[in-house]
Design brief:
The chain is built from 9 helices and 5 strands; from the N terminus they run ααααααααβαββββ. With about 400 residues, it is of the alpha+beta class.
């Protein structure tokens, strides 16, 4: 599977976007590779077919049949053999043919076809003795298989040139013209069938690769969703770990709802749950959204809270957001009537500060990633959490 499962702290709605783009890019690369495998396999088949046709069927006519210029026929045969031999260097390694080799090879093949026709005589074009017409088509297939439009154009030009040479020898009778047409039709049809088969195989392979990529992508999404669900369950269980004993104490009568400490614990648990619920919302600015949830929970208790935000949103990991909002939750849950919360974002750091008329025994602790500053000024408590976006 190409998508990598992410660690729980890195799982978020936004992280799925680059992962999906990477998956699509990888799928496109795999589709191109699949098409390359089809052409590489077909070229190996064509090398074998060309070798068999040239040395099994064409060599004997070149050596024994009568012709005007035998040396020219032998030279054309040798040129075609050299083209096949040179192509083998790339074909047997399943690598695409270089453009320069394709261009030079095509020119050599067409020149060899002309020389072979001249050596045999234009009037004998398409005769059973014409060993070069069909063989040249196979060489062109070998060279231009992955360039279908160019291949069809060159094959058509080769056919037209051959017909022109055949007609230049004089007006043929009806039987000769029919035999030439049948020979040309048979040879060209087989070669066009190879082109069609290759295109069909390439299309089917691409569809199979696309279906496999989609299946892998869906499987990865399912695994990621399962991992995310498991992480959410553990996170909720961790948060409820401090809430359940509180509820149990209230239900058993062990805790007095009128006790200020019990009220502060209830306010703390309510604010933690509000922040936890807000953490799962898909919003453009998750940090401000979670701080707003904490402020809203305090305001519902009657605390007058002023909230200020400065700077543009920066990406903050979920675990860092929890640590940044921890002091806010602690101070707001302990606030008696007034509080002021501020969020500052710069390119280098993110700071969340809260000033509240709260008791001085509010527990806070710094972590490895988030620093916490603590101060008491008369009846007011000040807490500030900071996180450097670029760790030194």
């Amino acid at each position: 599977m190409r998508d990598e499962l992410r660690a729980p702290d890195d799982i978020s709605a936004g992280s799925a976007v680059p992962a999906a783009e990477e998956s699509r890019a990888a799928a496109a690369g795999e589709l191109r590779a699949t098409g390359g495998h089809v052409y590489a396999t077909m070229r190996i088949v064509l090398v074998c077919a060309t070798g068999v046709l040239q040395f099994g069927l064409s060599l004997h006519p070149v050596l024994v049949q009568e012709c005007r210029h035998r040396w020219l026929a032998v030279a054309a045969f040798a040129a075609l053999a050299c083209v096949t031999a040179v192509c083998c260097g790339w074909v047997l390694r399943r690598r695409p043919l270089p453009g320069a080799l394709v261009a030079a090879g095509t020119a050599v093949v067409l020149a060899a076809s002309f020389c072979a026709a001249v050596a045999l005589g234009p009037e004998r074009r398409f005769d059973p003795a014409d060993w070069s017409f069909g063989l040249v088509g196979w060489h062109l297939l070998l060279l231009l298989l992955d360039r279908a439009r160019v291949l069809v154009t060159v094959l058509a030009a080769h056919l037209v040139a051959s017909m022109g040479m055949f007609l230049s020898a004089g007006v043929p009778d009806r039987s000769a013209l029919g035999a030439a047409g049948a020979a040309a039709f048979a040879a060209v049809n087989v070669q066009l069938a190879v082109i069609v088969i290759t295109r069909v195989l390439q299309q089917q392979s691409s569809e199979a690769a696309r279906a496999a990529a989609e299946r892998d992508h869906l499987a990865t999404k399912v695994l990621t969703a399962q991992q995310w669900e498991k992480y959410q369950q553990s996170a909720f269980a961790g948060q409820l770990g401090s809430t359940l004993p509180l509820l149990a104490g209230l239900a058993d009568g062990e805790l007095d709802p009128r006790d200020p400490d019990t009220q502060r614990r209830c306010a703390l648990a309510a604010t933690q749950l509000r922040r936890l619920f807000a953490e799962n919302d898909e919003v453009p600015d998750p940090l401000v959204h979670e701080v707003t949830a904490c402020v809203d929970a305090a305001e519902r208790r009657g605390v007058d809270v002023s909230f200020a935000v400065s700077g543009t949103a920066v990406p903050v990991p979920a675990q860092v957001r929890r640590e940044l909002t921890g002091p806010v939750i602690a101070a707001l849950s302990a606030a008696r009537s007034r509080a002021r919360v501020s969020v500052l974002r710069t390119d280098q750091e993110v700071r969340v500060a809260v000033v509240a008329d709260a008791a001085a025994d509010v527990a806070t602790a710094a972590t490895g990633r988030v620093s916490v500053e603590y101060g008491v000024y008369g009846d007011y408590l000040r807490l500030e959490a900071g996180w450097r976006t670029r760790q030194g």
